[in-house]
Design a protein that fits this description.
- 6% of the residues lie in helices and 36% in strands.
- It is mostly beta strands.
- Strand 19 and strand 20 form a beta hairpin.
- The protein is globular and about 65 Å long.
- It starts with 30 loop residues before the first helix and ends in an 18-residue tail after the last strand.
- The N terminus is likely disordered.
- The structure holds copper (II) ion.
- Copper (II) ion (CU) binds next to loops.
């Protein structure tokens, strides 16, 4: 546990006082400096001397455990429930724009985001509703807004084929038809996703499903139902985000400072016995192994696509970029406990793990329980129906090999549709990471059931709906993917590695959903689809 520190109170309205820094990562010669020196990259590892390798080994990890003074109240993204239009549709407004945030003492940090210029509001709507989101781009370059985890027509998906030019407004609309889940939105411009997300463009989209007879779970937004959007940053001169991509590791930016909902060194005042945390890994490359600092177990209740069949009591949850987890933490009055990221099991060799964040320990968020806590009901024994798309051992319809920043030997080409799938069909896919490097795998416009991992039945944490899955090296992951009712032979959905550096390098492909017997068409290329 970290020593409690003075509570400076919530920063007043704009312009807020600079919050105390709070973080002092242990690191002598930073990895970042090494990388800027161009010393290392995975291919270069073999070329460096044994002594150099030992030195790099000793300096390549980050450890902030017990070193973060939690002095800043956790910001809660504003909740947006939109307005009703004349047709009964729920209408949201989002403005993509640049901003400034006082994240640390000294100068404000230039950021990007939605509405107030950093991150974005939490959009919330119910299954069965039709939503419209008017996204106005006030940035100086084109961007897109992708609805990660949403089931919707490909033209509404917000991938690289739906750029929003500066000054333009894009108004996708779709009917929400999927179980309650914690989804999110972020830019997806071709080749620039990493930069836009790193600057701060990300927000939650919570789907409710009142008709499903929602189980009795903590549900007071920002009180005992708390968004936890985790991003890692490096700060450079004048408190600017350091956007330089290290050569070491081969996964892109790994930051030494965590922001939760845009807050450095955050704490949250806990006022109920049970608190639900909606964890989102909105980082470019970092993979987290979330746990609690005193080792207490917590209940994992939901993953990417919705609630698990039943709560899973555990003390760790691994999240790769794009993945979400909902956990419920039980506390007693006056307790303090830290949500911490422990070295995640990457399934990688020692060196790769070392240089891709696999040995890093980082304090995330301190939970501070009040002297008396509102009683919370016990967790229900069952939460949702288990996915039922298939079982392991059947035929594999399609295989995906992740290797060399390509999928099946091909890099992303916006004008090439890799394959078509039939509307209202289910396919079994097998995804295998053949690289030394960590990758994961995300499919747009749908959700999937994990059938097996390396031939074995999936562990409980993979027993619910997913849309993004970590793919350890040489470990075939078999998934059953359902393609719903939105057919469009010319507008593709994406499948890709969600490590944004890899995605931007082209580790992505495109598929279309077609009516039975209809062949894939040709994508209509947007004028400004190229690199900005
Ligand atoms: Cu990757």
């Amino acid at each position: 546990m970290t020593e409690p520190s003075e509570d400076p109170g919530e920063p007043a309205g704009p312009p807020p006082a600079a919050p105390p820094a709070g973080t002092t990562p242990r690191r002598g010669l930073t990895r970042r400096r090494l990388l800027k020196a161009g010393l290392i990259g995975v291919p270069a590892v073999a070329a460096i001397s044994a002594g150099g390798a030992a030195w790099l080994w000793a300096t390549a990890d980050v450890d902030t455990a017990g070193r973060v003074r939690f002095v800043n109240r956790l910001a809660i993204p504003p909740l947006a429930t939109g307005r009703r239009d004349g047709s009964g549709r729920r209408v949201f407004e989002l403005r993509a724009r640049a901003g400034n945030r006082r994240l640390r003492p000294g100068r404000p940090t230039p950021t990007w985001g939605f509405d107030d210029g950093h991150l974005g509001p939490t959009l919330r709507a119910a299954r069965g509703e039709t939503v419209v989101v008017n996204v106005r781009n006030e940035l100086a370059e084109a961007t897109t807004v992708h609805w990660h985890g949403m089931h919707l027509p490909a033209v509404m998906d917000g991938g690289p084929h739906q750029p929003i030019r500066p000054g333009a407004t894009w108004s996708p609309t779709w009917r929400l038809d999927q179980p309650a889940a914690t989804l999110w939105y972020h830019p997806h411009p071709h080749g620039r996703t990493g930069q836009h997300v790193y600057r701060g463009m990300a927000g939650l989209f919570i789907v409710d499903d009142p008709a499903a007879g929602s189980p009795d779970l903590p549900g007071r937004y920002g009180v005992d139902d708390v968004p936890v959007i985790v991003q890692d940053k490096n700060f450079g001169d004048d408190n600017r985000f350091d956007e330089s991509t290290p050569l070491i590791g081969g996964v892109g930016i790994l930051g030494d400072t965590l922001l939760v909902n845009g807050t450095v060194a955050p704490y949250h005042d806990v006022t109920a016995e049970r608190t639900r945390l909606r964890l989102l890994n909105a980082s470019n490359a970092r993979i987290y192994g979330f746990g609690l600092s005193d080792g207490r177990p917590f209940a994992l209740i939901g993953t990417d696509g919705g609630l698990l069949p039943a709560p899973h009591l555990t003390d760790r949850v691994r999240l790769s970029p794009g993945e979400r987890a909902e956990i419920v933490v039980t506390m007693r009055p006056d307790e303090r406990v830290v949500l911490r990221s422990y070295p995640p099991d990457l399934g990688a060799d020692f060196w790769t793990s070392r240089v891709t964040g696999g040995d890093d320990t980082m304090d995330v968020l301190e939970l501070r329980a009040a002297g008396s806590l509102t009683p919370s009901p016990a967790l229900p024994g069952t939460l949702a129906e288990a996915p039922d798309l298939g079982s392991a051992g059947g035929r594999v319809d399609r295989g995906f090999e992740l290797s060399g920043f390509e999928i099946n030997g091909r890099a992303m080409d916006m004008s090439r549709i890799d394959f078509g799938v039939g509307r209202d069909t289910t396919e079994i896919w097998e995804v295998t990471n053949l690289d030394v490097l960590p990758h994961n795998f995300h499919v747009h416009g749908t959700r999937f059931q994990v059938l097996s991992v390396n031939g074995a039945a999936p562990p409980p944490e993979l027993g619910g709906w997913k849309d993004t899955i970590y793919t350890p090296r040489e470990t075939p992951v078999r998934i059953a993917v359902r393609f719903g009712g939105h057919a469009d032979p010319d507008t593709p959905y994406m499948f890709h590695c969600h490590l944004l550096f890899h995605e931007d390098l082209g580790m992505m492909g495109q598929f279309v959903v077609t009516e039975p017997g209809v062949l894939p068409g040709r994508p209509v290329m947007p004028h400004d689809a190229g690199h900005g």
